[in-house]
Amino acid sequence: MTQPDSKFYKGHRERLRAKFLDNQLADYEKLELMLGYVVPRRDMRPLAHALLKEYGSISQILTMPYDALVAFPGVGRNIAIFLKIIHDIVVTGYQDSIVDKPIFHKIDTLKNYCKWLLSNKTIEEFYVLYLDADLRLIEPHLHSTGTCNTSGVYVREIAKQALKLNSVQIVLLHNHPSSASTFSTEDIETTECLQKTLQDLDITIYDHILVSKYSMFSARELGFIKD
Predict the structure, then answer these.
(1) H helices then E strands: how many in the chain?
(2) How many CB atoms lie within 10 A of CB 101?
(3) 193-209 pLDDT, tens digit each
């Protein structure tokens, strides 16, 4: 019984690899092929279908928290770690792409980076992206974490890190895990307060990006931040 199964999996996955190289894989097949590298002797089609039915897309699956993935029936620790490694590689790739050129030249890449970094987080996180004089990324920094609907912002720490990195412009970034809404009144007030305080140190806020439950918003595009 084991031998025929082994031959089937080997032949089936080889066909999937060939289809992948010909750019002919459906999303469930891509996920099945990925999962097959973690569990080589198990039919991964049912799990691939179940994950896509639950979360809707491969990108949504990859951005799900580790705890949610590991608790999903049939996933377990090894598959959850594998999926989060792929997620981390994607985030790193987008981050690397906004290091070498000014961010306004790659605004879609910046937005994708923010989306992949914060989508599906269960608590609010506040990041500061420190930029050089040419608006290239120097360093992303997790400034604070909070609850499902709030996180702290500490202007002294932001200023201290900016001066340390010789950063003259920054991008603020945070998420709303439990809401699909745009910037709150508190978000806007916090941004304005930071602007007034940091300008005395010649540090400018280039943008404030919000990753909401289903959408993403730019304070710059909405007119809250102007040159």
Answers:
(1) 9, 5
(2) 14
(3) 899 889 889 999 999 99
